[in-house]
Specification:
By secondary structure, this protein is α/β, with parallel strands linked by helices. Helices cover 39% and strands 16% of the residues. It has twelve helices and 13 strands. β11, α7 and β12 form a beta-alpha-beta unit. α1 packs across α2 and α6 runs parallel beside α7. The structure holds nicotinamide-adenine-dinucleotide (NAD) and sodium ion (NA). Sodium ion (NA) binds next to α2. It catalyses: a 2,3-saturated acyl-[ACP] + NAD(+) = a (2E)-enoyl-[ACP] + NADH + H(+); a 2,3-saturated acyl-CoA + NAD(+) = a (2E)-enoyl-CoA + NADH + H(+).
């Protein structure tokens, strides 16, 4: 079929298999152009199909020659209907990994469930024996609790007061004010239940109980802090409470891994265009200004550059550098004073008229469509392409 982008609200409901393959290939090429990492040999990535998780899987495979198992929740293709981009990304990743002689298998299902944890544990046991790194990179708006069956929904709301600020509809370029009403107590509980650390802990407990964690095992989950500007809706909002919980969970997990000298870390990553971040109000405007400033200073990074730096310059050093809260920071460039001062100044000036000048709205849009395999040079989007792509190592 001929596949063109089709958007609904903030998301794109079609994706292009060859474009997704191109996106993956670009990331593989980047990693191959860098010096190798002496790190993990067997890696499990939970949330492995897009964004930071995909970059983590690519870095593990092509940067350290690791065997990888990826867990994700993606929509397979049907005749006349495209798969979700994470499906095509994974198909392309596995094809390249297998060509390079690397073990790569995948599990598509709800990572929050006991069944998927069990299936993953059995696969590790059968094929790999033990693993030495688990990357936890889930971003989900809902979680069905495995014990109670209750379905929790996360929210992106401020706590205490209504928050009013500018935002951009990046599809139209319109900058306007939005007001987000303060959350309820229940919203906080729900968001912490979905995006906090409970499920990460359950994963590691399960794998530990089954004897599947190697000595010196490491696990990393991803967090975000960001500027003052977005604090009410991000770090001091409902999602921030979930991130606080995730960060606290790292210490609990480490406590339970003493006998194998295992350690859990949270890495604070940079703001980037992903399917998840596009859905957060205010953040797209911040990102489009941030990109402009970081590109001007030659400091811009995408997911793959971020994760390579995490592995190469943080995770596998003898002494892992952390901040006063014990977190790994790869948001150091985003948070630099000169960058933040410039973004704060541009923020005040941002209007529908000025944004295309002072912000990187084009860059934002381009990256957004790239997530779904669109806007890549060298791909003929008028041409018929086969949507029925399968993932070679899908279990
Ligand atoms: P993403 O939407 O690109 O990736 C989410 C992944 O989770 C996908 O692989 C998806 O298939 C998987 N997933 C979602 N629900 C699932 C389920 N129920 N079962 C199995 N898999 C499921 O998101 P991302 O932006 O890469 O976010 C990953 C992590 O990084 C999140 O914790 C996010 O908060 C954090 N982070 C993101 C940013 C950013 O700006 N995007 C910055 C810092 C930290
Ligand atoms: Na991810």
């Amino acid at each position: 079929m001929i596949i063109q982008p089709k958007t609904r609200g903030f998301i794109c409901i079609t994706s292009h298999p060859e474009g997704c393959a191109k996106n993956v290939q670009n990331q593989i090429d980047y990693i191959k152009s860098k010096s190798p990492i002496d790190g993990a040999k067997n890696v499990l990535v939970i949330g492995a199909s897009t964004g930071f998780g995909l970059a983590s899987r690519i870095t593990s495979a092509f940067g350290e020659n690791a065997a990888t198992i990826g867990v994700f929740f993606e929509k397979p293709p049907a005749e006349g209907r495209t798969a979700s981009s994470g499906w095509y990304n994974t198909a392309a990743f596995e094809e390249q990994a297998h060509k390079a002689g690397l073990y790569a298998k995948s599990i598509n299902g709800d990572a929050f469930s006991n069944e998927i944890k069990e299936q993953t544990a059995q696969l590790i046991k059968k094929d790999l024996g033990k693993i030495d790194l688990v990357i936890y990179s889930l971003a989900s708006p809902v979680r069905t609790h495995p014990e109670t069956g209750v379905r929790y929904k996360s929210t992106l709301k401020p706590i205490g007061n209504t928050y009013t600020n500018k935002t951009v509809d990046f599809h139209t370029g319109e900058v306007k004010e939005i007001s987000i009403e303060a959350c309820t107590e229940e919203d906080i509980v729900n968001t912490v239940t979905v995006m906090g650390g409970e499920d990460w802990q359950l994963w590691i407990d399960k794998l530990k109980k089954e004897g599947l964690l190697a000595d010196n095992f490491k696990t990393v989950a991803y967090s975000y802090i960001g500027p003052k500007l977005t604090e009410p809706v991000y770090r001091k909002g409902t999602i921030g409470k979930a991130k606080d919980h995730l960060e606290a969970t790292a210490f609990n997990i480490t406590d339970g891994l003493k006998d194998i000298k295992g350690k859990a870390f949270v890495s604070v990553n940079k703001a980037l265009v992903t399917q998840s971040s596009s859905a957060i109000p205010v953040i797209p405007l911040y990102i489009s200004l941030l990109y402009k400033v970081m590109k001007e200073k030659n400091l811009q990074e995408g997911c793959i550059e971020q994760i390579y730096r995490l592995f190469k310059e943080r995770l596998y050093l003898d002494e892992i550098p952390v901040d006063s809260e014990g977190r790994i920071r790869i948001d150091d460039l985003e948070m630099r004073d000169d960058i933040q001062e410039k973004v704060a100044q541009l923020w005040k000036e941002a209007t529908t008229e000025s944004l295309s000048e002072i912000g990187d709205l084009e860059g934002y849009k381009d990256e957004f469509f790239n997530l779904f395999g669109f806007n890549f040079d060298g791909i003929d989007y008028e041409k018929d392409t086969n949507e029925m792509v399968s993932i070679p190592g899908l279990q």
